[in-house]
Amino acid sequence: QALQDEFVAEGFEAVENTNGTYGVDEVAPVAQIGDVTYASLQAAVDAASAAPGDYVIELLSDSCDEIVYITQKEGVNITITGDEDTPTPFYGVIDVFGDARSKGTETLTVKNLAFDKGANTTDSFIVSRGKDVYGKYSYAHNITVEGCTFTDSTNSRSIAAVRATSGGAGISNWSIIDCSADSSVHSLAQFTAIDG
Fold first, then answer.
1. Closest alpha carbon to 143 in 170, 175, 115
2. What CA–CA distance (Å, rounded) separates 16 from 23?
3. What pLDDT sits at residue 122?
4. What is the pLDDT of the chain when averaged over all its residues?
5. pTM of the model
6. pLDDT given for residue 2 in this prediction
7. Using 50, 70 and 90 to split pLDDT, how confident is the model at 4?
8. How far apart are CA 164 and CA 173, in angstroms?
9. Phi, psi at 124, each rounded to 5°
10. What percent of the residues of the chain are helix, what percent strand, and what percent coil, each to the nearest 5?
11. How far apart are CA 94 and CA 11, in angstroms?
């Protein structure tokens, strides 16, 4: 019988041995803030979002495949960074909710990632959606995407690299710097409902 998740401590995983017994292995950390490591990028984002401050989340793994939800909070400035020399592969989505605060001063920077379509990728790699998804207006604000590449190895041409949807997204102050999207991606950016 498989070892159940509730019996395994955070940062560890159950593994089946060749003789049918189970053991526990430490999961390699995915992200780090200062000296503290996290088993997922989402866990690092959640830790950073807990209190005001400036946080640099460094991706440690060779690649990352997650849907990451970020709610912008007052005084919480987050930078998510991959490897500067060789951008870290990212096969998921970064979904940003501005919490209906169009004039917030906090920042989000995403840099040095090589986005590619993975099992968790929907219609965008970095996105802010509207009221229909979040239940209130988003107004994601002060977002910088820097030094990233965007590709769709499935060649679906259905993905926008960076997108703010209609229906109450209401983005403000987004920058895309030194990024590229190849011809497999529908577009580098699609913005609607721009506010400021």
1. 175
2. 6
3. 79
4. 88
5. 0.86
6. 58
7. low
8. 12
9. -155, 160
10. 10, 45, 50
11. 22
Helices (H) and strands (E) in the chain, counts: 2, 18
Q: Say how far apart CA 120 and CA 85 lie, in whole Å.
A: 25
Q: How far is CA 172 from CA 85, 139, 175, 191, in A?
A: 30, 7, 10, 10
pLDDT recorded at residue 155:
83
Alpha-helical runs (H) found in 9-153: 41-48, 131-134
DSSP 8-state class, residue 64:
B
Give the number of residues written for the chain. 196
Cα 62 to Cα 40: distance, rounded to the nearest angstrom: 13
Angle at 43 (CA atoms; ends 73, 144), nearest 5 degrees = 50
Contacts of 3 (CB under 8 A, 6+ apart): 14, 22, 24
Range name among 25-29, 171-175, 192-196 with the lowest pLDDT average: 192-196
> Region 8-21: what's the mean pLDDT?
79
- Over 70: is that where the pLDDT of 14 sits? yes
CA distance 70 to 65: 16
pLDDT the model gives residue 196: 54
Exposure class string for 167-176: b at 16+ Cβ within 10 A, else e:
ebbbbbbbeb
